[in-house]
Amino acid sequence: EAGVTQFPSHSVIEKGQTVTLRCDPISGHDNLYWYRRVMGKEIKFLLHFVKESKQDESGMPNNRFLAERTGGTYSTLKVQPAELEDSGVYFCASSQTQQGKVNSPLHFGNGTRLTVT
Amino acid sequence: DQQVKQNSPSLSVQEGRISILNCDYTNSMFDYFLWYKKYPAEGPTFLISISSIKDKNEDGRFTVFLNKSAKHLSLHIVPSQPGDSAVYFCAARDRNSGNTPLVFGKGTRLSVIA
User: Fold this and answer.
1) What digits encode the pLDDT tens for the residues A8-45?
2) In sequence order, which residues have a C-beta less than 8 Å from that of residue A62 and are 6 or more positions away?
3) Which chain B positions have a beta carbon within 8 Å of A4's beta carbon?
4) What would the pLDDT profile of A70-84 be if each residue is shown by its tens digit?
5) Which residue of chain A has the CA closest to B6?
6) Which residues have CB under 8 Å from B19's CB, separation 6+?
7) N- or C-end of chain A: fewer Cβ atoms within 10 A?
8) pLDDT digits 0-9 by tens, B43-61
9) Closest to A102 (Cβ–Cβ): which among B41, B98, B102?
């Protein structure tokens, strides 16, 4: 089974530019999450999709961030315009919705390291 | 305000000895706890979990202990091996739904010295 894949693995952009990160979850996983880790800090929740619907976007920092999951498969996270404080590692994770089971572990991708200069 | 705290940023242990990683939480609604392990340039991978109805869960060399009254959990690795060197994240979820987002700590970097 292929794991969660993220592209690109690294991105270096200048302040004010736009970047789009992509995540392909494990096939069949309805739940897709975006997280971010700023160096040395906790892995912080950004957004949760169930299929194509945004279930919870309480962690999105501001309206410069836009996440989509058209068709309920892969997801994109766009940052426009990027600011210096957006630098960090962006992780995507997915999980199944299991009937009768309330907890299913998240499977993470390897992340995209974003550097805004 | 951090709801999951890992107060030790790093820990060094001799190969073969026990590693104990600690985690404290503040939210009494948390009822499911997980440990993730992360190698450099990789995503976190699930290691072991525990539900609040238990106080211990064991899986091979890994045991997680939960003390609900103290809002504290710990991960024991015994015996520690060099391949265990990684960053370990404690995470928690509240009882409202099985798929609510996990809340993570800052991580503890474990170094196992041969």
Assistant:
1) 999 999 999 999 999 999 998 999 999 999 988 899 99
2) none
3) 43
4) 888 999 999 999 999
5) A42
6) B11, B13, B75, B76, B77, B78, B80, B84, B110, B112
7) N
8) 999 999 999 999 999 999 9
9) B98
